[in-house]
Amino acid sequence: VYNELQVKSHMTSSHQTVTAIKAFNDNYIWAISNENNAHIALVDPGDALVCLEYLQTNKLILSAILITHHHSDHVGGVAKLLEYAKEKAWSVTVYGPAAENIAQLDVPLKEDDTVSLPELNCQFSVLDLPGHTKGHIAYYDNNKVFCGDTLFSGGCGRLFEGTPQQMHHSLTKLANLATNTLIYCAHEYTQANLAFALAVEPNNNDLHNYAEQVKVKRQQNHATIPTNIALELQINPFLRCHEQTIKLAAQSYSKKNQVDESDVFAAIRAWKDNF
Asked: How many percent of the chain have pLDDT more than 90?
């Protein structure tokens, strides 16, 4: 059952709100709404039931589904949501990565494509973020990014299909966004990620302070997402592969010198996989 009370809605512009719908153990399905009407878009609806409950409770109309990648906890609810929309005579457009095989896709997307959602008065640019999967994408506007399983607070996604080089490049792309950009990732992994980050960079004061804040939030069952680019640049080891502390930690773990930043990333990611 979705629980709105535990996850705040975030006003991201004058009329636009992003709300988390909790799913499974630690997934967030993001609902984008506009105060001027009853339309919403859902990002990565892996679980139809929590989404349907959210729609019905709040008397909302689903008009778009945005998918970042093909994993079932991100697309598993799409078919049932489309069935429900058909019964209601709603027109729903499904957007997602062109490079992945997703059955219900209406609009396949790649980098620099634009998604316009007039009902919600919003528009997103598409970023290609291969690494977690080969065709992973993100949806970006000038103050937020929906990045699926690429960048988490204090961490990043596992490399199921892409290479360390691809993932490092994708993370660098996100790190170069405006520092006030809100990061809406798809999982509440922050506490576990920070335990690892502290092992990599034990003398990072910003990281220690953030870990304390997160501990309090999680004790109160509050979400740690969205995070933002400025914070992640200070505390996330996977965005800090250029820093000497991270380079030395990677060297210490792998017992060899890394030639470039993507090698540093590869070493840290391998360490995290075995942490």
From this structure: 92
